[in-house]
Hints:
Rossmann fold; Alpha-Beta Plaits; elongated; binds L-homoserine; binds NADPH dihydro-nicotinamide-adenine-dinucleotide phosphate; 10-stranded mixed β-sheet; alpha/beta; Dihydrodipicolinate Reductase, domain 2
Amino acid sequence: MTKSIGIGLVGCGVVGTGLLQVLQENATAIEGRLGVPLEVRRIAVRDPAAVRSPLVPQDKLTADPMELVRDPDIQVIVEVMGGVERAYEVVHAAILAGKHVVTANKALLAERGAEIWNLAEQHGVDVYYEAAVAGGIPVIRVLREALASERVLAIRGIVNGTSNYILSRMSAESMSFADALAEAQAAGYAEADPTLDVGGGDACHKIAILATLAFGQRVPADQIPTEGIDRVATIDIAFAQRLGFVIKPLAVARVVGDSLDLRVHPALVPVEATLATVHGALNAVAIEGALLGPILMSGPGAGAGPTATSVAGDLLDVARNIECCAHARVPSRGFRQVALRDAKLRDIGEHRGRFYLRLTVADRPGVLGAITSALGDNDVSIEQMFQDGGGQRSKRDETGPVSVVLLTHRATERNVRAALASIETHDAVVAPSQLIRIEE
Ligand code: NDP
Ligand code: HSE
C-alpha cells in the first residue's frame, strides 16, 4: 500500500470545500512534488446531514472534531471552521496529541496565537497559517523566510477583500453598501460575522500577525486603533473622487523611533497611487525593507480557490517536514520565542498627515468663519475647502444643511480632533463630522 499523509479537515464550508477541490484536481502535481499522496481521512462539520458539494465525501463526515484529533491515522489537522473558542479547543487538543496544524483562522491567531505557538514549540509540532492573511498572496512566507535577513521598516496594504469589494462596487457602480455586502457574502469572501470585515476587526487581526512577523514584537490586536469602512458614506466616496482620491480600506504597520505605528482605517489614496488600482476582492501588501527597498505583492485576498491554494501549500510544507523529520525548522512567528519583545504602540493622536473633513452645517453667515478659526486656533492649515448643498435644496430652504468639505495640510491628528470638537460645539453643526486620513 502507498504510504500517505493523513489529514483531518475541521470545517468544510467555503475554504474546506475549496481545499477538497485543490487536493482532488491537483493530486498528481501534489504527489509528484511531495513523493507521497495527501489523504483527507475525516471531516468535521456542524451539521453532517446538510446538503453539500459532490466534492465532499459523505461517509467521512462527523460532527465531533475531537474524533479527528483522536484518530491515529491523522497526522495533520486543518482548522477552517472559524471562530475563536471552539477552534482553540480543537487546535490545543491537536497539538497535545502531537498533530501538526494548518489554519486559516486569523481571529484565533491574533487572540490566542501566543498560547498556540508556545504549546507547538513545546510539543515539536508545526502550526502553519499562510491563508490567514491576504488569502492567496504568500505574504507570511515572504516575511518569515525570504526576508528573514532584512529589517522591515513598514507594511502598508489592503488586507480585507470584503471591504475592498464593497468600496469598489459603491464607487464604480454606485451600488448601496447593503447590496455590495450581500454580493461579497454570496461570493464567499465575508466572515461568518461580516461585522468583522466592515468594522475593521479582520484587518486588525491580520496586521497584528504581520507586525509580529515583520518586527519580532508581540502585538495586542485589541490595542490597535481600528476603524471600519462601515463609517464611510456614499457622499464621501463622491467627494473623494471629485478631489482626485479613492477611498481604500488600509492597514498600516510602521516602525517609528522605538515604537510601532499600527492602524486600520479607510483612507483617501491619490487616484494615481498603486493601491488605488487594487479593486474588488483583490488585496495588496507593500513591504519596505531597510536595504531591500519597497516591494509590492497583490492578488486575490479571499474566496475558495485562492485561500484553499494557500492552505494546500501549507499542507505540502508540513508534509515535507514530516517526511524529513524537520519540524519547527522555521519558527512559526519568524523569530524564536526568546527574541520576541513586547510592542510599544504609538498613540493615534501622534499621527501626522493630511486629513479629509466633512462637516454638515446650516448654511448661514459666520459658519465658515467659525470653522476656519477653530482649525487655525489648533494649528491646522486648510489646503482646500468647498461647500456643497448636493443640489437638493429648494430656494425656500436656503439656510441648510450643506456639506463643508476640507482637505488639511499635514497636521497632527490630536490637533485636528481638537479643532473638530470645538467646531461641533457650534449650534450650526447639525450632524456628526467625518474625518478620514489621507495616506500619501
Ligand atoms: P464557512 O462558514 O463557509 O465554513 C465553516 C465550516 O466550519 C462549516 O463547514 C461549518 O459546518 C464548520 N463548523 C463551524 N462550527 C463548527 C463546529 N463547532 N464544529 C464543527 N464544524 C464547525 O467559513 P469559511 O470557509 O469562509 O472560513 C473558514 C475559516 O477560514 C475562517 O477562520 C475564516 O476567517 C478563514 N478564511 C476565510 C476566507 C474566505 O475567503 N472565506 C479567506 C481566508 C481565511 P457546517 O457546514 O455544517 O455549517
Ligand atoms: N473575510 C476575509 C476578507 C476573508 O474579506 O478578506 C479573507 O481573509
